[in-house]
Structure formats: structure tokens, C-alpha cells
Amino acid sequence: MVFERKDIKLKDGRTAVLRPVETGDAEALIDFLRQVSGETPFLLRNADEVTCTVADEKRLLEGKRNHPKEIMMVVEIDGQIAGNCGIVSRGSLRRICHRCGFAIAIREAYWGLGFGSAMMEYAFSLAAGMGYEQVELEVVEGNERAKKLYERFGFRPVGVIFRSLRYDDGSYRDECAMVKLLKEN
Ligand SMILES: CC(C)(COP(=O)(O)OP(=O)(O)OC[C@H]1O[C@@H](n2cnc3c(N)ncnc32)[C@H](O)[C@@H]1OP(=O)(O)O)[C@@H](O)C(=O)NCCC(=O)NCCS
Hints:
Elements: E1 6-9, E2 15-20, H1 26-39, H2 54-66, E3 71-77, E4 80-89, E5 99-106, H3 115-129, E6 134-140, H4 144-152, E7 156-166, E8 172-181
Parallel strand pairs: 5-6
Antiparallel strand pairs: 1-2, 2-3, 3-4, 4-5, 6-8, 7-8
Helix pairs in contact: 1-2
The structure holds coenzyme A (COA).
């Protein structure tokens, strides 16, 4: 889905913009994904697993723009993509169409500036507007920055996915499943 651009003011006076992805972002987003995947152990991919072509990425971005119940948002500052996040559908079946998933990543150089909070606030208001009643995500054990942020936004832990991630060194980590209600019944 395409949505309105929104400016956000940083504490240091600079302005960043929250906006929907465009197909012209394809190359920059592949670079972005490769960088963030190498910066943190808390995402699903290793950096060498970012293998999609610009054409594949363009198709994916076009699909996100045209999807009535999904969004992909970037935060851009000084002409660079600093972060992205997405609301993804769990499916259109009537028993599950009230649920959506959420994922977010920001380049390490931009952590702690409030981008995560600003994107979440905007993304969840768009999710509510698309008719979703709850947002679901998984956070890797040890990712305290993300977990604290999610708790601050009203997510509550609902379970543990044992040995959810297996790393190249043979170690495993659990993930905590969290849910936030967008609308209290
Ligand atoms: C998690 C992430 C999205 C947060 O983005 P961000 O832009 O740094 O978030 P914000 O600046 O809005 O807020 C960060 C908050 O965490 C707090 N924080 C920072 N380091 C922390 C830590 N080690 N432990 C707990 N809280 C921490 C900050 O104080 C801040 O809270 P405040 O606004 O009250 O000061 C970002 O760090 C990121 O992309 N990490 C790598 C990818 C990732 O983990 N994605 C989530 C997968 S589930």
C-alpha cells in the first residue's frame, strides 16, 4: 500500500522522512539489507544470503506498493535509507485476517535517534487503518534494545520459540513471540 510521506524532526534539528518504498529504491535497499544483516546477529539472514537481483527486488517493492494490506516503509535522511520496516499480512482467511506481522531494521549508525519509535508509531496507525486488530513479531533472545522498545509500545510476550535461530558457529538462540493489540475488545 502507498501511504503519505511524513517528516520527523530529530533532537539535533535534522529532518528525516518516513515514506513508502519506491521501485527506484531497489538497489539501495539490497545494499541496506546486506549492511544491516552483517551488523547484527538479531536478523534472520547472514549478509551473504542477501542474493536477490535488482529485478527481483523491484518486483517485491511493486508488490508491496500494490498490496492493499501490506506496507513497506523506509526512513530516509540526507538522501540515504537509514532504516526500513514492514507490516505483513498473515493471510486473507477470515479466521486470521485480523492479524499482521511486523519487522524492522535500522543501520547501526542511526540507532538511538528515535527512528525505530517513529516508524513503529506510524506503521501501527496504518495497520489499524487497514483493519488489523493485532501485530505479531518474534524477537531474538538477547536483543534487549528491541525488546524494551516493543514493551514500551505495548507488546507482551506470549511464548518462546525454542532454538529458533541456528548460527554458523553451531550455537542456537530462542526467540520470544510478542503480540500487541491495536484495538482492545
Ligand atoms: C531495534 C531497533 C529497530 C531500534 O531502533 P532505534 O531507532 O535505535 O530505536 P529508538 O531510538 O526509537 O529507541 C531505542 C530505545 O531503546 C533504548 N535502548 C538503547 N539501548 C538499549 C539496550 N541495550 N537495552 C535496552 N534498551 C536500550 C533507548 O534508550 C531507546 O529508548 P528511549 O527512547 O527511551 O531513549 C534497532 O536497534 C535495530 O534496527 N536493531 C537491529 C535490527 C533488529 O534488532 N531489529 C528488530 C528485530 S526483532
